[in-house]
Design brief:
This is DDE Tnp4 domain-containing protein. By secondary structure, the chain is mostly helical. The protein is 46% helix and 0% strand. The longest helix is centred in the N-terminal third of the chain and has 16 residues.
């Protein structure tokens, strides 16, 4: 549902389950993936020293324009107030 954008109704129809069942298990999975046991073990946020994605670096149509670029490329903006220790990881990340 997260990747395809399908609704609870479409997913329930696809798997032949009620909307209530689909919503219940979707909520359980969201809590499992965002919980500290999973998140701290498998999610690694980029640091300021991580290089750009190889796809961008190896593409001659993209790299000249994005060389030296810091931050998000999709135009997203998330307001934050990180602690002094975490500020370098958030610098110019828009």
């Amino acid at each position: 549902m997260c990747v395809t954008g399908l609704t609870v109704r479409n997913t329930g129809e696809r798997f032949q389950r009620s909307n209530e069942t689909i919503a219940h298990y979707f909520k359980l999975m969201v809590h499992a993936f965002s919980g500290p046991e999973f998140y701290t073990r498998y999610v690694r946020l980029p640091s300021i020293h991580d290089p750009p994605a190889p796809y961008i670096q190896e593409n001659p149509k993209l790299w000249p324009f994005f060389k030296g670029c810091i931050g998000a490329l999709d135009g997203s903006h998330i307001a934050s107030n990180p602690s002094a220790k975490d500020r370098p990881n958030s610098r110019n990340r828009k």
